[in-house]
TrEMBL record:
It catalyses: (R)-5-diphosphomevalonate + ATP = isopentenyl diphosphate + ADP + phosphate + CO2. This is Diphosphomevalonate decarboxylase. Pathway: Steroid biosynthesis; cholesterol biosynthesis. The lineage of its organism: Eukaryota, Metazoa, Chordata, Craniata, Vertebrata. Residues 201-386 form the Mvd1 C-terminal domain. Coiled coil: none annotated. GO terms for molecular function: ATP binding; diphosphomevalonate decarboxylase activity. It is an enzyme of class 4 (lyase).
Amino acid sequence: IKMHEDSGKEFTMVTCSAPVNIAVIKYWGKRDEELILPINSSLSVTLHQDQLKTTTTVACSRLFQEDRIWLNGKEEDITQPRLQSCLREIRCLACKRRSDGEADVDTAGLSHKVHICSVNNFPTAAGLASSAAGYACLVYTLSRVMGVEGELSVVSRQGSGSACRSMYGGFVQWIMGQQGDGKDSLAQQVEPETHWPELRVLVLVVSAERKPVGSTSGMQTSVETSILLKHRADSVVPARMKEMIEAVHKRDFTAFAELTMKDSNQFHATCLDTYPPIFYLNDVSRRVINLVHRYNRHYRETKVAYTFDAGPNAVIYTLQQNVEEFVQVVKYFFPPETNGGQFLKGLPVAPTTLSEELKQAIGMEPMVKGICYIISTKAGPGPRVVEDPSEHLLGSDGLPKESA
Ligand code: DP6
């Protein structure tokens, strides 16, 4: 069972990677801060790890004096409550397995300390929610080191709510659950990533002046002050979840896209209904919203959808056949800086020409440098073990390698 581990008596090391997910029915608001239990269910698309992922190495050794963690090259405080929750819960699962009499379980993690090293393959400065991939990867890697199975999404949920959805690939729902202990508040795959291969995702990284209010404190203020949020959670989301699951099952892009945009808009309306109000969308975000609606109106068809999380970046969902033209539209209306890196990263998109008719129908004044770059991607699989030992982020001394 020590398959993925380095052999050697006093050292166990495992490296895994985990994906980012982008919600199409948003999670916003907790009923329990400590356990991270939400006031409504949510649904997301797991993005492909070729473009966006977190990689984590966990080493476990009797020689380590204490638990330690390095994130993107910098040592961080391991005593943070959310990190402690994940470590405690995984050790608890390992302990249960041992007491259940499973002799093959490697229980070294119970008495031994761990060193954790984690990196993202995308810049943190891009303002992409990295906590979901980060906690999903941490929990998945710890579970492999300690040889535990079980409901891992319940564990990663306690690191960051949205992280529970990154435990699966494709289309994933987080069922809010009813119990006080949170055992029924877990993620479930609705459809695998292979279900809808034509679906494509564009992350439009918007240049932001300052760091927005974090989701944790933002949603706390919303729960305390917004009656619209209460109405949303009680009376809107339950029906929307059903419709969204149906749209995904049927690969009904129009239904999927309209629900996605409406749910993003309602989430941002609850932010505005929060007192004092929270603004996540900026001028560029609102231009993207207008652009999408004008594009769809021109074709009298919902070909493109937007969604926004707790920041100004737009995430676009569309189908393969529309990607080339829509990317060209974005380039035209948000002309990139000519110096500096590539404007389009990720899956290749061929350039195309836009008709004058389309440009006129959209009829907006181009805005230079509004969007820094585009990451082109699609739905992808859940966490995985990285088998190649040269990919370990920790060296044989248990400390981060140069590159990590
Ligand atoms: C707007 O999962 O980051 O992205 O549970 O406090 O860690 P915590 O919050 P987090 O919130 C994500 C909010 C969102 C919507 C979503 O992903 O569903």
